[in-house]
Amino acid sequence: MSVAALRDHVFGYLNDRFFYGWVILSVAGLGLFTSGPGQSHTFSVFVDPISADLGITSTTIASAYGTATLAAALCLPVAGRLVDRFGPRRMAGAIVFLLGLACLFFGAAANFVWLALGYGFLRFFGQGALMLTSANLTSRWFARKRGTAMGLMALGFGASIAVHPPLAQFLIETVGWRQAWTYLGLLTWVQMLPAIWLLVIDSPEEKGLAPDGESRPRPEAAAAVKNSKEEDIPGLTLSEALRTPTFHLIWFSMASIAMLVTALHFYQVKIFTAQGLDPAVAAWVFPITAGTMVAMMPVVGRVLDRLKTRHALALALLVQASALLMVTQVNNVPTAIFYAALFGLNNACSMTLFGYIWPRYFGRRHLGSIQGTGQMIMVVGASLGPLPIGYAFDTFGSPSLMIQGLSVYPAACALLALLIRTPAAIPVEEHLE
């Protein structure tokens, strides 16, 4: 039996029992988990072993990492166009295979140039392309329940934060940092490639379904969907989206979230210690942030399905502004715990909005191109985020005034978000508009 025939058999068996989109959602969540080798929380464990082995400073490693992240971001629009052209199943298979090779390549790094290239490959295939493809796949299968679906999908990222750093540390202590990357590459292939080959179907229309499974209880609707064509799926092209005020209001707001979340992650320990806390306390509150994020992502998803989207985005931006103000007030354990929980809510908002907002306003037909461009802007923002706080540390000795000033950015975006409207060509349920 061919892989395609086996995939059709699995689809028929499972879809007779429940909407197959939940299977797709599970694979997409696994995709976010599998992106772990390309994420910052995994890299952080390897900084000291790489520095000692290659004889380069942590600053040099950070420079290679930042440059690679920026270069990977600039390639994301190309990845998005390829997803539109070949479909998320083929692209996800290729991306996961190349991510595994990138792990093997990185583990063999012998010098700075090799290391920088390895960072670039891992950031592009893991943090960039695989996350983009997973979100794209979920967006194709869910519309009315997209917020809930995105919140559940993002649990895969929370699981990666919980699993990959301690796993990487165990591997480093057991087999060394180079061999650790070999194991991470092999695990990437084992945990993701079979699921892609056997379970992933690009869109519900491919099987005569509609997003959310709404055609299943109505046979006449199912027949209509089955006879529909790909060109009947609503969606703006990238050039059309770029000509709307909506696109620019969204990227400006989402860049705020990406930029400042990265800055707070990057400097949390340094900010806390500058305000009188022990470094151990600063490190200890990370699990509180992660736990809050995991707990709140499904809640945020359900809110997105029920509130007007512009109002939900405005609330997320106000949470971001509040987190920035709160971090400057942390001076003891209780305030650190409160901030960690607030920052976890902020991360839940950013992760859920990441995959939700682009198909919500621009449709599914050319989602890869639009999402790739939007994600590129967000990653560029993330690469710039730590700079103003670092400047404040170096120039003023304290970042508090700079951070408080930066809080004006998301607060202003919250007001601008209220101006966002769905382009006329995109159908939307009235309660979301």
From TrEMBL:
Region annotation Disordered: where it falls in the sequence: 208-228
Short name of any one Pfam family annotated for the protein: MFS_1
Native organism: Nisaea acidiphila
Keyword list, A-Z: Membrane, Transmembrane, Transmembrane helix
Bias (Basic and acidic residues) ranges: 208-219
Residue intervals of the Major facilitator superfamily (MFS) profile domain: 24-425
Keyword Zinc: no
A GO MF label: transmembrane transporter activity
InterPro entries found in the cross-reference section: MFS, MFS_dom, MFS_trans_sf, Proton-linked_MCT
Upper lineage: Bacteria, Pseudomonadati, Pseudomonadota, Alphaproteobacteria, Rhodospirillales
Transmembrane segments: 18-36, 56-79, 91-114, 120-137, 149-168, 180-200, 249-269, 281-300, 312-330, 336-358, 370-389, 401-420
Coiled-coil segments: none
Protein name, as recorded: MFS transporter
SUPFAM superfamilies for the chain: MFS general substrate transporter
